[in-house]
Structure formats: structure tokens, C-alpha cells
Amino acid sequence: MSTGNLDFEQFRVFLEKACGILLGENKQYLVSSRLNKLMEQQGIKTLTELVQRIQSQPRSGLREQVVDAMTTNETLWFRDTYPFEVLKSKVLPEMLRNSPGQRLRIWSAACSSGQEPYSISMTLDEYERSNIGQLKMGAQIVATDLSGAMLANCKTGEYDSLAIARGLSQERLQRYFEPKGPGRWAIKAPIRSRVEFRSFNLLDSYAALGKFDIVFCRNVLIYFSAQVKKDILTRIHATLKPGGYLFLGASEALNGLPDLYQMVQCSPGIIYQAK
Questions:
Q1: Which of 15, 41, 71 is the last residue of a domain?
Q2: What gap in Å lies between CA 120 and CA 106, rounded to an integer?
Q3: Which of 27, 116, 190, 232 shows the smallest number of beta carbons within 10 Å?
Q4: Number of domains in the chain
């Protein structure tokens, strides 16, 4: 597989147009590791040839396979811990106090391999166990990702031992999972049924998503240009109900848009409230 400068630049342009991701100029190694196998299977030798094939055969499914390969990332259960603690100790009590009798809607954007929305669902269950009756109207978690293959895996709720070991306590494993054969575990139905998975590109229209009380958009904005990031955050604001909360990744910051969001300092961590 050839990743010369011109090849790589053409691929960078293609990927940003396809899904908004802006590859750094030194990321040839990442492209090679993600696409080598697929290009060998397709008999494609250069990135320029790959882009030309996608453009000349738009219905072949190759475009989707390439985007899948470049956007698929494994993640952790309860990543960074504090967002889920803040959700349980501050955001849920406030939301349920201010909007009694309404079902909560939570969006997990770019949900990857599903650990985030399922971690949110487990957090809701833990809150419910210690605050009987407060979540009587229930909650819906809409989990979206660009990768159709990843979403298909997410929907099964099944994970191998390696994935289970990444951030999941033994107590939560015993409470929320059941064995599914050697080295595999499945999330129990009550936790899984709260999550609805949908295929969604963050560059597309958000109209069909509806309104949300809480949005998790964590560890994805770092892949976008400053302008695309600003556009996504503006559109996320339009999906949030007034006073709704946005959770970003630990290394991400809002950097602007003071008319749309107010920074809320938690202990630990920072979240953002829609104005």
C-alpha cells in the first residue's frame, strides 16, 4: 500500500468531506494500519486509487467500509469515571426535580463499541436503586455512530473478556451481565432495552433526533477541524432542552460559544449547560 504525500492528501480531503474527520499530516501510519487489509482484499495499491474507486462506484459499499475502518475505536466502561458520578450526584437529581413526570432523553453521540451508552444505562439503574420512584417515567438513551458494523455489534450487547476487563468492576459485571459462552458476556435485558442504537453522521441534519435533556459527545470532537467542531456544538445546542447538559471528553473544551453554553465546574470535572 502506497501512502505518498499526494496520495495521503487526497485521502485526507476525502475523509473530511465524508465524515468531518481531519487527519493530521503525520497520520500515514494510522491510515496504513486501518486500511491495509481492506485495500489488499480489493486489489487496490494506492490511496489515490482507493478514492477514485469510491467515486466511480458509489454504490459498491466501499465508501462505508473505509469510513468504518477509519472511525472505529474501542473504548472503556465508565471512561474517566467522573462524568458518570456527576450524572448520578448532580444532573439526574436536578433534572428529575425540575421536570417531574417527564421521561428523560439522553444522547450518546459517537458511541463506538457501546460501552458509553451501556455505562449510562447502568448509572441510571444505580440511581434508581437508591432513589426509588424518582425515575418512574423512565429514560431513553439514543446511541449513535457512523459505523454500521460497530452498531450491529453494539445491539447484541455481547463483549469478550478483554473488553469486559477495561473499566468494569466485578460488582457491576455480576449485577448487569450474564455469561454467554467461554470468554463472552452479555448485558442483561433491562439495561440493554433502555438503549436505542441508530446510524448517524454528525455532519448530517439533527432534526430527526428530537430534543434531549443530556448529551454525551465525548472524545470525538478532537478529530474535527475548529470550524466543524463549532458547527457540531451549535447543532448539539439546538437538540438540548433549555438547561440541558453537555458532557465532553476529559481533554476537550468548549473554547467559545459563550452565548450557547455555560461552563459548570463540578468536583471533579467540567460540564456545560445549555442557555
A1: 71
A2: 9
A3: 190
A4: 2
